[in-house]
Amino acid sequence: MKSIHSLSGSKVLKTLFLSAVFAISMPVFAMNLQQAMSALPNAKTQGLVGEQLNGYLGVVQSSPEAESIAKLINDARRAEYTRLAKENNIAVADVEAMAGQKAVERTSRGHYILLDGNWIQKR
User: Fold this and answer.
1) Helical residues (DSSP H) of 2-118, grouped into ranges
2) What is the CA radius of gyration of the chain?
3) Which of 87, 69, 59, 58 is nearest to 30 (CA)?
């Protein structure tokens, strides 16, 4: 194998360019928050995740996708609840409870909610 020092300047640039193109073109396996938000409606419809009274998503049917969606969205919710609590000088738990109640109320028919420790489809 040739070292980078034994290649000519144009070959070095070509090698670096091809390496960069390869790295950029590789599929991204990790989901980001925007992708999780986009996937959330379908995940709820499929019964993978549901709303909880604590203000966070729960995993109804365990899968890597469901776990990732719930984690990313819950992390964002936690940050927002913390911000709102500080801004309004109230406990984070109070914000979580209010958000959870609203989320459960707004959950569409057929989607899952956690009540009394059991996942049920909202009617």
Assistant:
1) 9-25, 33-45, 64-88, 92-106
2) 22
3) 69
Enter the DSSP assignment of 30.
Answer: S
**DSSP assignment letter at 56:** S
pLDDT digits (tens, 9 = 90+) for 45-86: 999 999 999 999 999 999 999 999 999 999 999 999 999 999
As a whole number of angstroms, the distance between CA 117 and CA 68 comes to 22
The structure's pTM equals: 0.75
Q: How many CA atoms lie within 13 A of 81 on its CB side?
A: 19
Beta strand 112-115 pairing with 118-121: antiparallel
Using a 10 angstrom Cβ sphere, with 0-12 exposed, 13-18 middle and 19 or more buried, the burial of residue 24 is: exposed
pLDDT in tens, 15-42: 444 444 344 433 434 799 999 999 999 9
Per DSSP, the three-state class of 49 is strand
The position carrying tokens 């090698």 is 15
> What is the residue type of 33?
L
